[in-house]
Amino acid sequence: MPAAPRQSISPRPGSALHRVAAIDVGSNSIHLIIAEARPGERLRIIEREKDTVRLAAGLTETHHLTDEKIKAAVATLRRFTDLAHAHDVTAVLVVATSAIREAWNREVFLQRVEQEIGLKVEILPGVEEARLIALAVAEVTDFQGERGLIIDVGGGSTEFILTDGQTPAYLASVKLGAVRLQEQFLSRQDPPSRAEIEALTTYIQSGLARTVREIQEAGGFQRVVGTSGTILALAAAKPDTRSLETKAPAPKKVAFTSFASELTYAELQALNRRLQRMPHKARRKLPGVDSRRADIIVAGGILLETIFRELGIQHLTTCEWSLREGVVINYLREQGWSLSHTPLSAGDIRERSILSVARRYAYEAGHAHHTARLAEQIFDQTLPLHGLGMREREWLRYAALLHDIGYHIAHTSHHKHAMYLIRHAELPGFHPHEIAIIANLARYHRGSLPKRKHEDFTRLLPVHQETVTRLIPILRLADALDRRHGGKVKEVIVEMQDQSLQIVPIPVDNTDISLEVWCAQQVLPIWATVFPGLKAQICLERAARTAAYR
């Protein structure tokens, strides 16, 4: 496959950091990302920009890019290139997709970009576009050993990929896109007529027939991932559509958002029925839909719904990473960066997401990992008391790894800063409620216990409030037992007898752990508060005897 194009700016020899810009010249919009690659961290997107140039406007009828659109695209590319240089990038990668692929005067566009800006634009074949999309999605998605179908709905084309996270088993690009279809079928009436919608649906069914057959013959799929602005917009719009039409108050903004959202066939059908009744002016106000996408969202929704129906899809998970991220990953691999080449399990993706955030904020690795180990030991030995399961144990571990990252902002109130950083981190693999639980646990690793006035805590579901409350004493005890951040308590034994909890900290080679013991004793009243009637104590004599035998 052809490599992603690049305008080289001489990578620094031996540099521990690469900043790479990728520009995607699409049929609807031109997108820029600036990504930062550091050893030991997941690729971090530090800048995103978009300009809705609509290069494909009129292309279906004339097959030519208009002078006006070329001029607007060149201006956008110049602005994006200036922004990339301001971030001191080591390379600028520019790719173009459907609109430029199909334009008969594409050489005019390519020459102007090279002459006026000094950029060489690579026109990606549809199959290569699909491959790069798959590369990005596999980097942040757990396929759980299943065959996944990736769908990317663009302005001029839609890409389909079958993969389990490794080399794709099937790649296809179909000339069905939201801009193309809107211009061909839905540009005459606002809102569109039933006849227009039926004609569009029939056309899409015909255009999908071969792809549907090939996907079935290739073995089908068990799960579906959707990328691109159209799919993300549809998934974002579906919660608030009812309140918009009924003029009910908008729901309270949720503080925690996940990297991926979900969209079911039933939700998409209901959303599309509403979109098709709305005039363009009303669609512009729809939460989750960019006002510049309001004119093509109906065609995009019908296209996606038809794909769902023809392929028997009932549920789709979105992914924010797509072509642009794939271009960067492909380039970095060519440069020898050891990004993952093998499929990641859910645990791998989640752990790497957490560690990427931890390293970004310069966490103290020794203390964080030791606290996590002690917390897991305490959790396992107090199972009859808290009654939580393996998922809760995982949240506890991740909170322990991140509990001190607030020091990156300030020492004072670092526990509150930790919550803020976790809440706003990009964490692939986690649902919003999980991010909220981990952030709250980090928030309460010191200071007061949760109160009614603490809004981020009260937003949790009652069951999740209870989970956080039961995990707080465990995290605090583990943190206290490594007070000097030196790993002086190598393990902790916890025994329960009726309402008594005996805690036996085992030092490393008879090391003095008096400070750790004192700090642990300050935490014991919290155990009694969370678990009423419990009597917890530190057994120093037993700790000394146990250490002598080990």
Describe this protein's structure.
The chain is an alpha/beta fold. It contains 23 helices and 15 strands. The chain has helices at 59-62, 67-86, 98-102, 106-117, 126-140, 178-185, 194-217, 229-237, 241-246, 265-277, 280-283, 297-311, 323-334, 346-360, 365-381, 383-386, 390-402, 414-423, 432-443, 455-458, 462-480, 514-530, 540-549, and strands at 7-8, 18-25, 30-37, 44-51, 91-96, 122-123, 148-153, 158-163, 170-174, 223-227, 262-264, 315-318, 489-497, 500-507, 535-538. Strands 1, 2, 3, 4, 5 and 6 form a six-stranded mixed β-sheet that branches. The protein has a six-stranded mixed β-sheet with strand order 9-8-7-10-12-11, with helices on both faces. A hairpin with a 4-residue loop joins β7 (148-153) and β8. α15 crosses α21 (462-480). The chain is elongated, with a radius of gyration of 27 Å.
Structural class comes to alpha/beta
Sheet-strand content, in percent, reads 15-25%
Number of helical stretches of at least 4 residues: 23
The whole-number mean of residue pLDDT values reads 87
Query: For the CA atoms, what is the radius of gyration?
Result: 27 Å
- Main beta sheet, described? 6 strands, mixed
Tell me, briefly, the overall form.
Answer: elongated
Total DSSP E strands = 15
Q: List unreliable stretches of 5+ residues.
A: 1-6, 8-14, 240-254, 340-346
The percent range for helix content is: 40-55%
End-to-end separation: 59 Å
Organism: Chloracidobacterium sp. N
Protein name: Ppx/GppA family phosphatase
Keywords: Hydrolase
Domain Ppx/GppA phosphatase N-terminal: 33-332
